[in-house]
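Let us work through a complete example step by step.
Step 1: write down the sequence.
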Amino acid sequence: MKDVRLIKQNQLYHRVADQVIEIIQSRRLRPHDPVPSEGELAKLFGVSRMTSKLALQKLAEQGLVYRLPRRGTFLAQPIEGLMTEGGTSPQVIEAAPSVDRPFGQIALIMPHLSDYTSRIIAAAEAEVRKHGCDLILKMTKDCDDEDLCLERLAEGGITGIILFPQGRKTCSDQVLRLKLRKLPLVIIDRIFHEVEIDCVYHDHYMGSYQMTKYLIEKGHREVGYTSNPIDNITSRKERYQGYIQALLDHKIPVKIQNIHFRSVACDTSRINECDPEQERFIQDNPRMTAIMCGDDHVAISTIHTALQMGIPVPEKLSIVGFSDIQLAAYIPTPLTTVRQDTEKLARSAVDLLMKRVGNSNENPITIKIQTSIVERQSVQSRT
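Step 2: predict the structure and record it as tokens.
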């Protein structure tokens, strides 16, 4: 008698599984949309929760759905055609990931923690939640540590990765391996020109161009430029190029003596002190009336240095930055700077990644996030 009941239950859950397929098709569910729960199916078809559970397990074993503990069941792949009589499997566009793969986990890999990266992390976490996923944050020490982190995440079955890379001359071999494996991966705040890969970054070139143009329109003709070493970091290179192009477009000579790249990166723990490198740069170029700085830390250091040299900012020397870190608004002379929209950067990166998780076959996409100028008190018109 027990065997008869088991046979009937087996036949019943096969039929429920078929009906779940019909529900998926009639509702036109998309990958990662929720599928009716065990309880909903039990009520809908008048069966036990065990029967509906077996039905969902069957679909999971076929790779058509995936199940997350305490979250529910979700569609893994689009389905073509109806289930045939006898309970045979429907056709699937392509093989679905293993049922054990931890769908819903997105990794965000960052090279350091700062005001700027903290805003990206907060915005990314909020956006990932909207997609029903969890965010895993990894901080890397150097390029080797970044490669190891990528490798371990991939081996662990991560759903997708958003990577803010360490400073590199070229794209890492590990990133290329993941690209070949078709693991969803989006690069943020950097661009690798030698390889086609999904990328979201701020338009550093145009942000610097517009800021330099802003200074020119304020009547400045001797506009200097100072930055941390470029070190093959695309954002620093593009900011410098934007400055140069703005001068050329406004027929202002590019003077090499007005350009200064630091021998070492600005010490962010001492930006309120007089910096010897910035002091020499200012002393050697007394004709400069404005300085475009490659980032806000360099700009704040330059302001403090000028003030301690007895040079009033902005009355004698206007100084601008790039990034709009939180500190920029609270220094003795609040900083005019280029604002980077971290929320839009994070939102675009997460949306693009989820598109890839949904098996989008489009060619790699590069998204440029536009910047804006925030006017404060560190610039004075010369007109």
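Step 3: interpret the result. The mean pLDDT is 86.
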